[in-house]
């Protein structure tokens, strides 16, 4: 499957992507606000096992983010914790290639993946959490149509300190106008 957006495309992740993921895992600036799985060292073998299983989990949908210009893998995004009963899931994104930060990639990808979640997967609610210190991500989510719901006080631990997480969401009834 391939989803297109301006200058980029989303594709399935593959085991050949392990080198990029391993490189990103070694860069604390890249992983600072990301999933807790990056809190612990990972070998290439660990990453390979994860990539081999990623497309077989019905509760998660993951896409590699690639540049049309050079087909380079820039990061990944998707929906985790998909509940068919509640028609909900949680959005995630990691832009691993820092040269693409601040260029609107996060907003564009967020819109496309959220649209896929609502229109293709039939989800009613897509939520996310972001570190309150990750100003760029919060702005990208706002620009993509997500609304603030609240703050989860001291629910993250980074650089030896507890930090708040912002809870945001979008509903299918709000998305139909996008």
UniProtKB/TrEMBL annotation:
Sequence ranges assigned to domain N-acetyltransferase in this UniProt record: 8-169
Phylogenetic placement of the source organism: Bacteria, Pseudomonadati, Pseudomonadota, Gammaproteobacteria, Vibrionales
Residue ranges crossing the lipid bilayer per the database entry: none
Name recorded for this polypeptide: N-acetyltransferase domain-containing protein
Domain of life of the native organism: Bacteria
Species the sequence originates in: Vibrio marisflavi CECT 7928
SUPFAM superfamilies per UniProt: Acyl-CoA N-acyltransferases (Nat)
A Pfam family: Acetyltransf_3
InterPro entries according to UniProt: Acyl_CoA_acyltransferase, GNAT_dom
């Amino acid at each position: 499957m391939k989803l297109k957006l301006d200058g980029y495309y989303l594709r399935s992740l593959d085991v050949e992507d392990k080198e990029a993921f391993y490189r990103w895992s070694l860069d604390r600036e890249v992983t600072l606000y990301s999933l807790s799985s990056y809190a612990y060292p990972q070998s290439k073998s660990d990453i390979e096992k994860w990539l081999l299983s990623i497309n077989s989990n019905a509760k998660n949908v993951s896409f590699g983010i690639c540049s049309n210009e050079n087909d380079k893998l820039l990061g990944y995004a998707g929906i985790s914790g998909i509940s068919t009963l509640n028609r909900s899931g949680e959005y995630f994104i990691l832009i691993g290639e820092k040269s693409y930060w601040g260029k609107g990639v996060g907003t564009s990808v967020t819109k496309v993946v959220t649209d896929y979640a609502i229109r293709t997967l039939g989800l009613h609610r897509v939520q996310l959490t972001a570190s309150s210190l990750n100003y760029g991500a919060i702005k990208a989510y706002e620009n993509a149509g997500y609304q603030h719901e609240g703050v989860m006080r001291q629910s993250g631990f980074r650089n030896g300190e507890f930090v708040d997480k912002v809870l945001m969401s979008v509903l299918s009834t709000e998305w139909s106008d996008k």
